[in-house]
Amino acid sequence: MEILTDRLSLRPTKLSDVPALFAVLGDAQAMRHTAHFETLRACRRHVAGHEWQRRRLGYAPWTIRSLADGTILGWGGLFEDPFDPGWGVELGYWFAPSAWGRGYASELAAASVAEANDRLRLPELRAFARPENLGSCRVLEKAGFIRQRYVPELERHLYRRALARQV
Q1: How far apart (Å, rounded) are the C-alpha atoms in residues 47 and 13?
Q2: C-beta separation of 90 from 148 below 8 A
Q3: Rounded distance, CA 67 to CA 72, Å?
Q4: With helix as H, strand as E and coil as C, how does the chain read?
Q5: Using CA atoms, how far apart are residues 165 and 88, in angstroms rounded to an integer?
Q6: Which of 34, 88, 104, 165 is the most buried (most CB within 10 A)?
Q7: CA nearest 9: which of 68, 86, 55?
Q8: Rounded distance, CA 94 to CA 27, Å?
Q9: Whole-angstrom Cα distance, residue 71 to residue 76?
Q10: What CATH number has the domain spanning 3-162?
């Protein structure tokens, strides 16, 4: 199912998207606040693990495209991490440097919160951000997330956002 925002198309990731996503997820500089993938194969494995979660849970990160020209800008959305389980449903996003500073992360976060609340009816979302990643911290706070605590083993702040469940 594709979700459209004012400027973005959010849709399930296809294996054919992975080479373009690897240009972002494999870029050490772009991914300096999180892990990056050394190989296309590792990136494909990671994306496939999340797509397996989509089939199981009904959500996983989307391929994020520009509505203006169809360019893949990044990857993100709601997920339960199949590689580091136990944190609950998270919001995460990874964008190409060319997309930074344009409000796309805030647009994605708003769409993700709406999806979590309206369709999935989740009680809460979590997110992580490194303290030095001020842009991501601002995106989360703007989306209604509240910083809970610092998680030393992840070197990140844990954020939480309660959702207004529909009855």
Answers
A1: 8
A2: no
A3: 10
A4: CCEECCCEEEEECCHHHHHHHHHHHCCCCCCCCCCCCCCHHHHHHHHHHHHHHHHHHCCCCEEEEECCCCCEEEEEEEECCCCCCCCCCEEEEEECHHHCCCCHHHHHHHHHHHHHHHHCCCCEEEEEECCCCHHHHHHHHHCCCEEEEEECCCCEEEEEEECCCCC
A5: 17
A6: 104
A7: 68
A8: 11
A9: 15
A10: 3.40.630.30
pLDDT along the chain (167 residues), means of 10: 96 96 92 91 96 96 98 97 94 96 97 96 97 96 98 97 75
What whole-number distance in Å separates Cα of residue 94 and Cα of residue 144? 19
Strands 156-162 and 72-79: unpaired
Under 8 Å between Cβ of 16 and 86: no
